[in-house]
């Protein structure tokens, strides 16, 4: 039987059950059947994001100097540093707009579909010859891992920004990603939390509320900066109305770049940093 | 008295008659009272050290929308419009905060986004009245805002909403020199992430008309109509996908707020699927980086189109099934019905726009009234927008939570219909030329200089409602004012009013049924 006929038969059967027994119950059951089981097996099974996605950039420093310079000058975020002494790209500033990829016709920068972007140290966000891959090293903070690896409660604070980061954190709670299966929960009160996820460039109007939330979390606590706004101010780095980066007022343990970070970027960062075991 | 203009029309400042404030005032009052005119923009700006006021009003002749623009020197004080017409409330507060023009008879003349040190909340005195303060940090993963309820027991007597926590100074950043389009576009896309497509689209249409980008001739001296059509089609496709993802997400959130967890989970996942389709089109789940002036950064192949179409068919079926479950469950109808009512008259008086307005019976939709972009072509091909509430059992369009939920559902279905039609047209084009590609190089666009002393107003229908941008340049071609108006700017007062005499526990439900933007308001 083809898939379409099967679906029709199923629908028809449930309709009859509805008429004979209980309409609402049959609708509930039918939808449950149709929706099926959708949760991903990640990290045991890998997921591939379609190719238009702009993830970790691959940088070719052998490229012609004039092309590199053109990209650096046209970068709307000033994320590219090209000089005689130092060449590199700051993932904390980048908003992944793809301008440099187009200008250099992929000769200088090519955005891959690799969503592994997070680091635990700010300086490692700077991709250069010595540091071509952003990664979270194993030896960092073994104590934190022992404490939170099997159960982690996080409080989220939106401190400015455009609400895209918040929405892609929310998506982690939908059945596809199902964050809770990893023992990670986003909680309503800082008193119940082991750390905070901060999004947004920290506007001056939100500074006090963010500090109060941070202080209400019991020690030891983690601070996670999600999105380029929280790391460097993002698109608002020149604004006088923002603090431009959580790091200016709080110690940050984990940096998750992106504008906004893909839910898988955030998920992988949390799994790697806290060595979450299923 | 006011000058009649078109959307996206490039105007010289001198074309707009500079009228005396007295005439300006009376003319606007007459328009509001006699022609049911609504505000699109009301803003202050500085030119050569003088404070000016500019207004853009909208009227309707049958179903065709018209825009009217007027300019005057700002007086130091005047009798506020708000005293008689509440739709001016937030606009006048904004002018008061930014340009210190005093409005007499305005009862809520206090800061909007900044200077909160001496902010006084409205309070009702009385033995049985108590205040409940909520925010700026909320229990869920949402944006910051402060809600102050004056309650009598469980009953809300008054709600005051104070925003501004997300104020990032976007309008100020857009005036930075030198102005480059790719930098500005990134700021515009960060006005509100969930409305990135519609904001980028409005910005692009404005720049295209200011710099006259789409009329450029190719080497053979002809306008490339086919290319322009492709450009507009992909933009409309992205805009409708954005609308769809947000409406479906809202239906899920509404089910979650009344603890009906099955549809909440199903809709939540489906919303993600639509975002993935947007990623397939643009490389970003919110469509960031897709739309630029005279350009769309995408390459659409026949495989992409087939993939989108297949997914859409599957989701269309699921949406109908899950919605049927949601809207036929008696407990849910019971919770949605009669809660947070904004009736037709109130909606008109407050100038409510978008989904919230249509749920109250105000039929205004920019896509129908102004036919921006490809909607004009769709109208020509008899594929007009049809978002009428078709539910025979419950449809009343009486402005309650149920009406807003149903409006979202029917608009989502209509978006699917439009997207399918667009995909079909795109497929025909791709058959001829393999791949649909973008038009112009941004490098060339960046070199262009903005026209001097000019004004452009661009308008579009985002998923929340009417979004409009307005740009004014000075006699050097520098931008001196860039005004962004999110639909939420019209609708926040409606939420406060919808909560009057409701149970305080109904607030999350009411709030979600409007789902307004904090960051689009705070800028």
Description:
The complex is a heterodimer of chains A (278) and B (523). Chain A has 278 residues and is an alpha/beta fold. Among the domains of chain A are: 3-35; 142-274, Rossmann fold (3-Layer(aba) Sandwich), CATH 3.40.50.12280. Chain A has nine helices and ten strands. A five-stranded parallel beta sheet of chain A has the order 7-6-8-9-10, with helices on both faces. The longest helix of chain A is centred in the first third of the chain and has 18 residues, at 3-20. Chain A is globular. Chain B is of the alpha+beta class and 523 residues long. Chain B folds into two domains: 3-104, no CATH class; 170-522, Cytochrome-c3 Hydrogenase, chain B (Orthogonal Bundle). Chain B is 44% helix and 17% strand. Chain B has helices at 21-35, 89-99, 170-173, 181-189, 196-211, 225-257, 261-282, 302-328, 330-336, 344-350, 354-359, 366-369, 375-380, 401-433, 442-447, 488-498, 507-514, 519-522; strands at residues 3-5, 11-12, 38-47, 50-61, 64-73, 77-79, 102-104, 129-134, 146-152, 155-162, 291-292, 295-296, 454-461, 466-473, 479-485. In chain B, strand 11 (291-292) and strand 12 (295-296) form a beta hairpin. In chain B, helix 14 runs parallel beside helix 17. The longest helix of chain B is centred in the middle third of the chain and has 33 residues, at 225-257. Chain B starts with a strand and ends with a helix. The chains are: A alpha/beta (278), B alpha+beta (523). Chains A and B meet through helix 2, helix 4, strand 6, helix 6 and helix 7 of A and helix 3, helix 4, helix 7, helix 8 and helix 15 of B.
What's the rounded overall pLDDT mean of chain B?
86
User: What are the secondary-structure elements of chain A, in order, as H or E?
Assistant: HHEHEEHEEHEHEEHEHEH
Total domains of chain B, how many?
Answer: 2
Strands in their spatial order, largest beta sheet of chain B? 1-5-4-3
| Overall morphology of chain B | globular
Distance between the termini of chain A: 38 Å
Structural class by SSE content of chain A:
alpha/beta
Number of strands of chain A: 10
CATH architecture assignment of the domain at 142-274 in chain A: 3-Layer(aba) Sandwich
Query: CATH topology of the domain at 142-274 in chain A, what is it called?
Result: Rossmann fold
Number of DSSP E strands of chain B: 15
Helicity of chain A, in percent? 25-40%
**Low-pLDDT regions of chain B:** none
Rounded to the nearest angstrom, the radius of gyration of chain A is 22 Å
